[in-house]
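INFO  loader      accepted 1 record
INFO  loader      residues=138
INFO  predictor   begin
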Amino acid sequence: MAVPRNALKKWEKVRGFALSLPGAAEEFPWGGTVAKAGRKVFVFLGVTDGSHPLGLTVKLVDEAPHAHALSVPGAAPARYGLGRAGWVSVPLADRGAPAAGVLCDWIEESYRAVVPRRLAAELDALRRVPGPPHRALG
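INFO  predictor   done
INFO  writer      dumping tokens
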């Protein structure tokens, strides 16, 4: 299956944002891409080879973003029991998929939900530095 170009472009943008967060690193467990900080995964980015639909999975603990993510066409609680802990899988290629900015906000919430306080504080300190908005980190 071919990967839609606009979805791939969005995927690349959110991947770059995720990897710009303090302590973030990219790993490839189970054949897919994840962003981790320390030993904690904060976003599952899947694969871009067309073998599966393009999407991402984030942990959204606040009720409003969680409900918003689940309202996206094709979105669902994450499999393997992760959905019970607030993880949501969101497709990127379907009509009605969120804009990259919304996805970056969800990635940041997921990051804050799983990383040690030290890394969240580091991100807060970066935000207090005068300059462009946080999306410029990526």
